[in-house]
Write a structure and sequence with these properties.
α1 runs parallel beside α7. The chain has a single domain, classed as FAD/NAD(P)-binding domain. The strands form 4 sheets. Strands 1, 2, 6, 7, 8, 9 and 20 form a 7-stranded mixed beta sheet that branches. Strands 5, 10, 11, 14, 15, 18 and 19 form a 7-stranded antiparallel beta sheet that branches. The protein is α+β, with helices and mostly antiparallel strands. The chain has 13 helices and 20 strands. It starts with 6 loop residues before the first strand and ends with a helix. 25% of the residues lie in helices and 22% in strands. A hairpin with a 5-residue loop joins β16 and β17.
Length: 566
Amino acid sequence: MPKSIKKYDICVIGSGAGAGPIIYELSKAGYSVIVMEKGPWYRTKDFTKDEVTAVRRSVYTPNLLDERHVIEDKNSDGEWIGRNTYDTGNDFWNGNCVGGSSNFMSGYFQRFKPIDFRLLSEFGEIEGANVVDWPITYDEMEPYYTKVEKVVGVSGKIVRHKHLEPRSTPDFPYPPLAENIVSSWIDNAARKLDIDIIPMPRAILSQPKEDRNACVYSNYCGSYGCASDAKGSSRVALIHYAIKTGNCTVVPNAKVYHLETNSNKKITKAWYYNVENKKESVYADFFVVAAQASETSRLLLMSKNKEFPNGLSNNHGQVGKNFIFSAGGIGGGEFYLDNLSKDDAQALSLPGVFVNRTIHEYYQYTDPETGKKLKGGTIDFLFEHANAMTKAINQKWDEYGNLKYGSSFKKELKDYFTNVRKLKFEVFVDWLPTDNCFVTLDPKVKDKWGDPVAKIRIGNHPHDIKVGKFLASQGEKVLETMGAKNIYSGISGAPPSNLQAGGCRFGNDPETSVLDKNCKSHEVDNLYISDGSFMPTGGSVTYTWTIYANSFRVADKILERMKGKR
């Protein structure tokens, strides 16, 4: 390497939840950190609550004409068919900008539970699923969950229940956010059904923290950037403070496409396209990849050379395998304001304040058909999103699939917007890893730089549907007890593209995993992977808190090695 070229202590590829803690901790410790982010660098002032910008036109993700995926799913004949997302519009991108998709999350934060770390030991093998235990325990992760609460900022209230995870602190550092009256209705219904209902923790500040403001209850949270910096994105909660140390350099609009290794099987530099689409490289002692799971596998598969002919860290053929999403589905019901008292109708209509209720009663349950103990999941309650255009579009078809129109439809829309409040629930259960859910490179479809795009096969296990339907039926019971109308639910095998993990499992055996227990590559000594790729199984809650916590854990492991070199 020429002496005139700077070599960094660590190069981090990506800047979301899997990257932020490492960027933050290494910068604070005095090490030189360079962050390579494929997307632009938006500041808080750049985020808008405009539905056209944020949702309808997906401004914060790449144009599918330039960058796309190929999604492989079964057709009606049972054949696997790949479809280009530019043709289908089924976008698998999530927040390509500094801070990644953590800018646009709703901030529902729930810990994995001890049984999530030992799924195989607790519930045994499931035919057709590649279920394993994690190489670490919940107790090893717990201090880092607690660290996220303090550093990123989590608001909530601990309520004792039978599936509560062990904690080293009695409660969250920030009190609960303001709640809508409907939360008390859910509580009352749960009591009647004799089930535990608990407040939902949120990675949203209820009180100011340093130079971040508290939540302003804008009514536009999920899918939108935060106007007050209350939401705990990697950008505002971590990278902002890393930059303040003077040790962190962020390079936006830098698409890394190849990691170059030497004869000792160590990465020497990362090649990337700069904002002018010219090729450049960056040197570092250590490299961390946290580009979101599908793109992390893609980068490794593209980084071929004579030492790694099948892709970086892929001499055992494990990169891209055992890809997972979050399984489950949705449900909901409607409350008509003209059926309520004036005070209740006014309170229910109040925008901005949250529902923040979740059921963990069925995280483990007995199968009513077989009597066997099964891993279950969670049911999270929330209002229908405030997006006006989306709400209107969702009303345009009748129950038989016919298009509604004319004066009667106008009247129906007016009534829906002025007299109806829809309460929804989301079901989260394990997406079991299988041989039919994985990431490869598409041999034909390229991105705008001429690189092969990721092809994602999205096969799911029927067990996911079975468990999801059980949870959905319990969610419906709560709505029925509340007196909701037009209750429905649906459990699907279609994956939520914003909740992806796996592809670079951690484990103790290089034959069956890409990473060791510290998320260091088995095959490349200076490579770490810290986004959701490391997860061998996905739990029954959203991933972000666990990704944050694990990244803080990995930061400590890297720091231990760094200190040994000084």
